[in-house]
Hints:
17% of the residues lie in helices and 18% in strands. By secondary structure, it is of the alpha+beta class.
Amino acid sequence: MTENERGGPSRRALIGWGGAGLALGAAAAGGGVALSEGGLGLASASPDQGIAFHGAHQAGIATPVQDRLHFAAFDVKTEDRAEFVQLLKDWTAAARLMTAGKPVGEGAYGGLAEAPPDDTGEALGLSPSRLTLTLGFGPSLFERFGLADRRPAALADLPKFPGDNLDRARTGGDLCVQACADDPQVAVHAIRNLARVGFGKVAVRWSQLGFGKTSSTTPDAQTPRNLMGFKDGTRNIAGTETARLDQHVWVGASDGGAKSAWMSGGSYLVARRIRMNIETWDRTSLQEQEDVFGRDKGEGAAVGKAKEHDPPFLKAMKPDAHVRLAHPDSNDGITILRRGYSFTDGTDGLGRLDAGLFFLAYQRDVREGFIPLQRRLSAQDALNEYIQHVGSAVFAVPPGVRDSHDWWGRALFSKEA
């Protein structure tokens, strides 16, 4: 069966997946993997299955956390608004296919020998591996395309926190795409294909590979450990806790007034690359390690408790213990959804591992979530002796793609699209 017989454009009609004439509906046949409502993918347990791409919210936020990450921030290179909107449509069509385990466009082989293939091919024969692709818009994007009056106040620029040592090469970005999957090659393939589709219109500013999820959004699951060997964020919001998600993660219809209406059902993402001083930590006594976190290292239970999910008694911890300072009861109820990953990127040239935590946190309003929480932690947390924030970015993550006719960011551009 040819592509035309399947209802989509032929390769001869469209040379190159990123062409301005690409029809959004061409990938509709790849959108049939729908295991749950709302973009949560909570019904998906097998890596051979796909997680729903369509939904009220983007997948990759409240979705059960996968094992691997490839996160990329992009700079926009085009000044043409129509060209950028077409890119968003093309990216949506490609993402719809890849999250269903299908190749982009007409695939990695079998097309015209004189043209590059539509798909890079390294995921051929691999399952969807619960791939999710989550797109966000950085503050700098709103300086383009006449979008200044549509930037939500909740997309606040992050201040410089005490102890920050940010690398400009790992900070900021007009766009981001978070690819999570249980197979690292599937996640890398997704980012690589989107970068290929966007060639000439966007360019990768920085990226981060992650492994060993450090958070869980699955009810009653054990909390994964970070590279310091500790469990952190044991009271993370679960994907089934709809009331907590509505309260702390999803943007409400009335949040921010008319100029933020396009964000209803979305969320705000803070990404921080946190370098861990692994060698110093590894020479620290067990007692001090446990005092720093306010947990025992074996079970992950708070001081004086038996199980990791037992409610902590904060006053039993040292005043500068991380759990005590980060807990909602110490911060007027501030709650964020964590979705971080460990990383190791070789050495720093001085014989020390370049390793740590790639921190990802979703919230309803950055001004009421990460910013006040990080101000408290950066000023008092005992953990600061062993970590340093070296990369940073904040993004507005729009609501989900509703159906095969919808596309990433449509509501933002709808008045003019």
